[in-house]
Amino acid sequence: MEEVDKILIHALRQVGTDVGEDVDSIKQFSSELIVEAVVRCVRVIDPGLGGALPTSLPPGMSARFRVGMSLAQACQDIGYKGEIGYQTFLYSNESEIRSLLMFVVEKLPRESAESSDQPTGKSAVLQRAIAAAIKAQLAVSWVPPNCRLPLHCDTQNQGASHSFCVQPLSLPHCTKDRKHLKEVKSYQRDVLPPVSAQVSSRVSTAASLLEQHAAELSAAQEWDSEWKSQGLLSRLTPQEYRLRKLTRLRKRIEEQLRSAALPPHESSSGVPRSTSDLSELLHAFRGSAPSDHILTKGSHFTHTQKFTFTQETAAAPSSVLPGRQSEGDAQVGQQEELASLQQQFQQLCSDVEQLAADMKHISVTNAQVLDELKQRELGNAENEEKILVKKKSIDLLPDADSNTLKLQSLVEASAKRVVNLAAQWEKHRAPLIDEHRRLKEICSSQDRESSRKLSEIKSLHEKIRVSTEEAKKKEETYKQLVTEIESLPQDASRSAYTQRILEIVSNIKKQKEEITKILSDTKELQKEINSLTGKLDRTFAVTDELVFKDAKKDESVRKSYKYLAALHENCSQLIQTIEDTGTILREIRDLEEQIETENSNKSVANLERILEDYKAIRHENSALAAKVREG
User: Fold this and answer.
1) Residues near 200 by Cβ (< 8 Å), separated by ≥ 6?
2) pTM of the predicted model, to two decimals?
């Protein structure tokens, strides 16, 4: 039982029970420790059922009885079939407690009992304590600093809070391009600054890292969902799918830029204007400045014309003013000339605008006239066809009977030709229909096969994801177990435990062999006793018959017959007495075992505790009655 108790104590420590290091047997369990162990196991098995149970016994006796009854009911609800009640926890019996703890430990779910795989070292305990503290702080609602009570001082920081300021970061990533691998590594090693130096303020480091990680995680999730929903259906590799997507995006950007770079009248008449965000943005930038200030790239002729016009306007005042005028009159004349030229320029601009408007109007009118002309030409063509048909009909009217016969013959010939063509078409149609059906069946079978393979691929992706998660969990478990093994004392070797297990197995094997030998000896003795009893009965029957025949003739034989009957009766009584003696000895041994069991159950100590609890309950009842009378 020592090995069983050690296994149970180890399992109870893993589910969170506070079992002392000096406790190595179920005998040393107190009522409080038993209640805590069973409650924690029930919480792991069924959190809804064990959430309402306390892990410690209350001070009042009536409350203790209620806790014991509720805990016994919870054990019965999870499937315990043995006898259980409040006395099981308050007045503990070693065998009952051992069987109960074995049941709840075996009932622990393997997949959800993560605590069984967690190490009990100092680092693991510290990590669990940190996680519990963070959960407790997250569970408390946030209160503004001005409204905080002393209750919130321990859970909420009263220091200065900072805004969530994010800055773009450049993080080193692994690349598969071996050509540029050295350059990338040298850049990341020599040129790329650390993350703490890329941000302008130390406060925004954590926020920037969180934002970068969230962006990468969301991008990975979007790519995973897009590949599972659309990428698998395209039957392309991930690299080909990404290349095709990039090509489409570049083509779309080029189309938007090309359409946005055209003049407004060309884009409105010839090229349809896109309503995408990029097109709207480009048109907004294009239309933000007035048309007179748009910097356009002119031709060499345009620049030459502007230069000559500027020279002429600059030389005109000098040719008009005579050399004998004063400088003041020259300035006045220049200003008047400049004003007249500006008026002329404005007049020319207005004339150009008027001409442009007239040209637009004329072009619109011309387009309308062209459309109307096309429509009339189409109408004229239709009318000409109708006139030709009517003319032919009028030409055929003088010889109507012969023309009718000719028309009927043509109709019959046309009908025969149609029938012949239909027959020929049926001859060609039958194999084509068969071929179409065969190809359709092949296509449907290929579709079914592709859909089946697609579903298999999706299931394989899901299995790969699950296997990856399991591998990560097992890797973490392996690391934790390695740390636990390293933290364990090194004096206990594996060979010692193995030798101990082998010794236990050999002892059990020897006990089984001895039990089998005793059972075989008992069976042989029983067979021998049965054979001797049968032989004795048969011998007595033969002797009784022979002596009884001679007893009728001789008096001495009659006496010997009486002695024979008395001897047989005495022997039977002696055998019965021996059997009764064996039965009594067995009962004595059973009673001695029961006495030892009762002594091990601490019946006297439990009776004393029951008496003390009874006195405490009477005292509580008297106190409650006194309070009721006072009230």
Assistant:
1) 167
2) 0.34
